[in-house]
Amino acid sequence: MISETAWWVSVFTISEAMIGYPISLIALNKIMHKTNNKNIDYEPTVTLMIVAHNEEKVIKEKLDNAISLNYPKEKYSILVASDFSTDSTNTIVERYIEDHPNYNIRLHKSAKHMGKTNAQNEAQKYVKSEILVMTDANSIFEKDAIKELVSSFSADNIAYVSGQLIYLNTKNNKTAKSEGFYWKLDLLCREIESNIQTITAGNGAIYACRNKSYLDIKPIECHDSKFPLIFALQGNRAIYNKKAIAYEKAGEVDSDEFKRKTRMNREILKNILPSLQILNIKKYRWFSYFYFGHRTCRYLLWIMHLLAFIFNIKLFKKSKFWKFTMVLQTAFYGTALWGWKKKNPNRVVKIITYYCMTVLAQWIAVYKIITGQSKPVWEKAESTR
Length: 385
Hints:
Layout: H1 2-32, E1 46-52, H2 59-67, E2 76-82, H3 89-99, E3 105-109, H4 116-124, E4 131-136, E5 140-141, H5 145-151, E6 158-167, H6 174-196, E7 206-210, H7 223-233, E8 237-248, H8 254-264, H9 268-271, H10 281-284, H11 286-299, H12 301-315, H13 320-342, H14 347-370
Parallel strand pairs: 1-2, 1-4, 2-3, 6-8
Antiparallel strand pairs: 4-7, 5-8, 6-7
């Protein structure tokens, strides 16, 4: 009985994370029909913070993009937060500042390589604007991206706005296509969460917060997962504006995407349930359900897949049903392994392989946390540049 219960709990958690939760949100959206207001006349002072570590390949293009954006020049400044760059990134930025004296561009150089979040914490101390927009060096904004982000701060309780990241290479590259499929589903969930109450995670390529609401967090943590949670627990809102658009390349090789997903999960054990307050449905309403379905269940995939397999082995001889589920699981993992080795072009095989790679990345992240190898710095994926 215990084995059966454990198996069903594991399967429910996996199903809720990948199927049940998105379906429930789509149903909620049809019932509630909520949308967020925007204030197109709101034009506060804005600082665009570009975080870079050894980004000599893309930093000039990023700066060209930054000065071309549609926002009042007198209310707009650019701050490059260089995380101890050792290539020519700083030189390129300094030369760019000299060549563009009519733009308010500054460079902050971190004295040590301590990761993106530390660079943001340091550079934010020099920000005086009302709104702080943050982005990566390899992300290219659409012309009205900042105006869209800013317009979403239509109420005092909106503390954070995340834009939409679109991957440029999902049509021609199989690895990028798999990430694009997953990402579109995730963005749909964020849009509905945002319309109903608040999102559970943001996106490091394009997001903004009120400068007065900015909080220093630990270098190993990231704004993507931490800020929406902090603001939700404060009773404020973090929302998503799909018209604030940035473009990036997704990882084009499995090894790059695997490293990225491992890095993204470097705080996975804490993020399963970072605060017991989340369980207070009466106080936090839909956010409690959103976090459980979108975050807790997903952060448990690594252990739930293992438990489902182990308990299925124990139950194998009990009935044909358990033999059938064992065959299904074995075939699923076998397909993933085959797809990984053969680089099979079949879309279904690729999605299964990509999903299992995601779960394996969680396992690697857990191992690094337990062994003390999890760090706030990482090597960027070259195929995304």
